[in-house]
Amino acid sequence: MTFAGSGNDQGSLLGRGGGPAARRRGGPGGYALGALGCLLAFAFCYYGATNAVVAAGLAGTHGTLTVSACQRHSGGAHSGPSRDCEGIFRPDGDRAGDQRGGEDGGGGDSRAHIASWTAQPGEVIEVRQGTGEYLRPGHSSPWRFLAFAFAGLLLASVMLPVAVRGTGPWRALREGRSLLIEVRGTWTGRISKWLAISGAVGLAVDILLALILP
Length: 214
Description:
By secondary structure, the protein is of the alpha+beta class. The chain has helices at 2-15, 20-23, 28-55, 95-99, 142-165, 169-174, 187-212; strands spanning 61-73, 82-91, 109-115, 124-129, 134-135.
């Protein structure tokens, strides 16, 4: 009877997310890694969501950018070639900047940068000011920015259990366990589950729309 009871208790623990070994807490390194991972995930989501809205023409400061010079970059091992143009950005209604002949003033930016393969020096293009960069409405697809946001949700679903339990992913991989076992049956586990589902489904839909829509 004693052995049977112990077996039932162990099975109950496993059903709720593993025994004591699976539920053990990690060290300070695990908590720090989880916190940094969650911050990075938030940064991905914020960058992607805000710039997607700007790229769609629904937000951001509207104005014009007078291109002064462009430079092409060959890229590296982890990035392809790109072309960057710089110039003077003036928001709509910046009369003071117009009177100064295009110099920076008011809400303007004399060192504005925009990624473009078609812009030429001397050209005045319509732009919207996003998060740390300028985008051309209609030329900048929101899908690539949304991919960052959904990737951030996936990253958060992995790093949240690490931040709560303090158990680094290397331990789970070494023991052949899922990170979600650490928080199964808890509110953290439920949040991680929905973050993973939302991120995976959103990323799949985003890729599909990027292939179908311009």
